Each structure stands twice: as C-alpha cells, then as structure tokens.
Sequence to fold (688 residues):
Amino acid sequence: MSDADAVGEGRPSRPALPSLPAVTRTRLLLAPLVLFDLLAFVVPMGYLLRVSLSERSTRQALVRGTWSVDGYRFLLESSLLRRVFVFTVLFAVVATLLAVGLGTAYAYAAWQASGAVRTVLLAGIVMSMFTTLVVKLFAALVVFSPNGVVNDALVASGLVGTPLRLINNEIGLVIGQLYVVLPYTVLSVYSVLTSLDEHLVEAANDLGATPARAAREVVLPHAVPGMAVGGVIAFAWSAGAFAAPALLGSKSELTVAVEVQNRLTSFEYPVAAALSVVLTTVVLAVLAAGLYGLRRRGGGHDV
Amino acid sequence: MRSEGGTFDERQVQAGDHDGATGSLGRGGAGRVGRREFLAAGGTAATLAVAGCIGGGDGGSLTVSTWSGANEEVFRETIKPMYEERTGNDLEVVGSWTNILGQLRQSPSDDPPFDLTVGSSRDHYLGAQDELWEPIRYENVPNAETIKPAVQSNLDSDLGVPVAYGVMGYAYDADAVDFELESWRDLIAEDVDLDFALPGAYFFNAVIMSAIAADEAPMAEEMYDEDQRDAIFDTLSEMPVAKFYEGAEDMWTSMSGGIADAGQYFYAYSRRRDENDSELNVGFHVPDRTLGYVDHYQVARGSSNRQQAEEFIDFLLDEEVQTAYAEAFNLGMANENADHPEATREEVPIENDELDEGIVFKQYSRVAEVAPDLDERFKEFQNQF
Fold:
C-alpha cells in the first residue's frame, strides 16, 4: 500500500525522511568503505610501524612497550640488507621491463590474431592466472631444472653439451617472476588495444607507413596506458617477490620479502617490520612517481 | 574420562593386577565374597579413586604439538594409540615446525593452543625468556631418572624434559655419488667431487658442521669462541656448496632436479623419506663425529592440563614407549634402557659415552647473545657465496 492510498483512507502517512545534504549522504555511503580500509590496511600497517619502532633484543622476538629506532638503524648499518634492497629494486626494474616488453608483444599478437588463434593466445594467459602461484613455480622448477625437459631437449638436440643452469640463480629468478606477472601485463595492454580503432592502422598503412612503423606510431602510443598499468602491477609484485626467489633463486638473489621471512624466523621482529615499512614506502613512492609522470604526459586520466 | 582412565602409572598398576583381581571376582560369583576378593576389589576401587584425585587437568583431551611431518605421523600412528590405550585419555596431536612460539604468544595466557610442545633448544630458550613454559614438577615425571646424562645436560633449565635426540648426517643421490664421507672434514678434501646442499634458513646446523670440520677446537668449541669463528667460515668457504636450501622439500627437489647430489639433513627424516619415496635412490650416512639436537617437551604456560601434560612426558619416557618410538622413527631415545633398531644403532650413537664423544648437541643458550651476529655473518656468507 502506498502513502497516497494511506492518505486516501484517512490514515496518517509515514513521516518523510529528512533530506540529507549531498555531502553528508556521500560521507555516510563512504563510511563503510573507510571503516573497511581502516581495519584492513591502516590498522595492520600502523601495528607494523609500531613493531618496527620496538627495541631489538637477543632474548625476545619483540620487547613490548619499548620505543627505539634500532631496527631502522640496523637497516642502514647492515651491508647485507643494503645489498638486498639494491638487488630487489634492480630485480623489480628488470622484471618489470621484461614483463612490459614481452606482455606488449604478446598482447599485440593476440590483438592482431583472429578466431581460434586469438582464443588460444588469450586462454593461455587466463589459464595461467587461474593456476596457483606455487604450482606454477614448481612447474617452472621441474621444467627448467638441470634434469628438466628444457635441458633434456637442449642436450638431446646437441645445442648444448651439458645442462644449462637455468634455476637456483638470477635467470631462474627472472623466469619465475615472469611466470607470475606476465599475465597481468598482457591483459592490461590487450584491454587497451581492444579500444583502438583498427581503421587508424589501416589509414596509416594507406598513407605509406610500413606495418612496423604503423605499430610504433599508432598502436604503441595507444597502448601506453595499458603498459603503464601493467608496469605498475609488475613492479609492485616484483618488489615484493617472495615465491619466485624462494623457489627458483638462490641465497645470492635475496629479495626484501624473503629477507623479511628470514628475520621473522630468526625472531627479529623489529628488523622484519622495519624492512617491510621501508619496502612499502619505496613501492608507494615509485608508484606515485609513475602516476605523476603519466599525468604530466596527459595519460593519467586513462589509468 | 579421567576417572575411568587414571594416570599412566596407575594404569600400569591396574594392568599388573588385572588377572588376579578380575579373575577372582569373576570366579567368586554372586553372593559369596571372600577376604581376598574383598581386598582385591577394595584395591581396585582405591586405585580408581586415587586416579580421579591425582589425575590433574580437566581429565579430558590432551593436546600435544610436535614436529609436523614424519614425527607427527609417528605420534599419530604409534604414540597416540599407546597413550590412549594405557590411560583412557584422548590425545590430540598437532604438527608445527617454525611457528610454535608464535602460536603461543598470540594465544590468551590461560588458553594456549596446546598443552605441551616439542621444541628446539632455540625455541626453548626464547620461550623461557617470554615465560611461555610452566616449570616441570619432576615428581610427576619419575622416568626422568632414566635419561642419559649426556642428553639431560643439554638443557640447563627445569622448563623442559628431553625425550629423544637425533643426529645430522647427509642424504645423497645414490645414482650420482658412489663414496661416503667418513667425516665432515672430507667435504673440504680436494678430490671430493660433490654438489652439496646445506640448510640456509639459520646458521646453527651449517656452522656447527663447519666447526666440526675445521677441527680447531674439541667438540666444535670454535663456535663459542669469537677468536676462532673465522676458522669456521674459512672452512665453510672451502666446501663444495651448490645450494643453501630453505626446507626439506627444497633440498629434495634440488637433489631430484640435479642442482645438488647430496645434502646435510636429519638422519631420521632421511630414512623416513626413503621409505616413502621410491623416485630418488637415496643413500644416507652419518659421519663419525657430527652435530645433534635434542627434542625437549615443554608444558605450555596457562595449560589447564599441566599435570596430565607432565604425566604424558613421563609416558613418553617410559621404556616400552621409547622402544616403540625408536622402532617407528630412527631417533635416539633419552631413556638409557630403550632398545633401538639396527638401522639406528648403525648410525646414531646410543650409549652415553658414545654421545659424549660422537655428538655435538646444539645448545642455543650458549650462543644466544651472539646468535644475531653469527646469523648475520652466515647470511652475508650465503649472499656472497
């Protein structure tokens, strides 16, 4: 029964809800999200920050109630941790460049393909995303190990005399990380390419551009926002890489995330927390710089 | 449950009296109760009554945390049935490896996730600093008197009881390696062609092994002497290390994948792995003088089953239980009267004097103050290896 009916029947109508100002309504609608963010991100990060500012101790993992910058001082003083940080950032940059380069090429190939070929190319990427990270990396371990199928094939074909070392070193680490991040860069770029009007490429060709030049001057600029998003994802994942270094790298390829785990098992909670805080800050700073660069370039609105 | 089952010792008494008491009562029939039957019945009743009084805890289920994997399996398959049959109590076995202290720290002070737990010497030390262990009341652990002195002396606290010990040897791919290392020092011999894997998660095992190989001081005392630590790392750098592994699977995968063809590992766990895995032709050997570890059991702070937990430790130290444990898993047992299978006796020192001469047991309390420095140096070493 509507309010009009109620009035018609002589019964009092429900009092109308007071109309809230638009700003208040927006705030009320945002409140659950803000609360979720507070509980899920801000509070844990705040606790992490607090732990990082606790005293180090050889007797306890965490001396509660103490305040100290020992953890951060240790980061500055430890040559090992400095090396780990530098290595992690370099590794993240290399993995990102490779992921964006290979991802763009793959996405372009998928975009150019049609019918079954396109389906197979995209299904390969999507299926990879559906596979658990550890399973994927164990598969890589088996495939690229000295006794694995890749080396078996290389040795059998006579291309190499003895198996190549493709895991337990930097090569293995990068291969493993590409297994992890490549699907994201491919899909980021592909999603942008699908919005490109193919007639623009045809027009470029009609105007005398070679296919390579058309790709470079028409397709590539259009793909930049997708490459940026893919790059941001690849960098964030790679800077925090844990599974690939742990499974396919060696102790010479320590990343910050692996070192955090090491410090936790050594019961050095303040150092582990300080490492995490600094890594998070570095990743956020790089992402902010990337977004700023994109905005200045004029592409920020697409990201 | 508790009043039915009683304590382990009481159950032993009951088992010993069983035939006479029950048999007599059965034969006596209804109506006539003789003096002996009356006394026997009275004894049984008294035993049950005492069981109810001194049983401790809430008389229900006891939860023990032990090393996950092979040791947990042995607890489930061997220890649990024996315990439940003897006492009538329920035993819940949970497995854990690296997060024992974390679980306890995160739990309410009067509601730990388990009543007692196994722990390494490091877990024991750090847990003691955080007051995570209840002191052991040895009057509830009479079998502690049977513990070998060399094992008992590993722990200089009354917060834990040694139950078993193991040694580190090495597992190898028997299809790739056709020789045995008589001592850890053989690893630095020039003619040893080996890709060796070492545990990399923490410094203890690799550093003690290297100290034994360096042989600069008796019983790896180099580790406790700052002036002699360089010798340890010099020796380590001469070893044919191909891989610093993070965990068991990492080592086995390295061996099956061809990264390493041998690796330092727990002898008992290697044997167990070999029994369950036919893919890799695994050999294992324990060099003459090696490093070892003791599995201590500690009662978790705030456990409502403190007495039952202490009695469980006593049960674990019982000669028959120790022998069954040794049969199921190739560890050395703390009880000096326990029997060990041939495969264990071949590789693991059993007698007390053999332990004194053949095993360097890890003692975290002796290196606790310098452990971060040693670990840092070990990590540096691995990173630049």
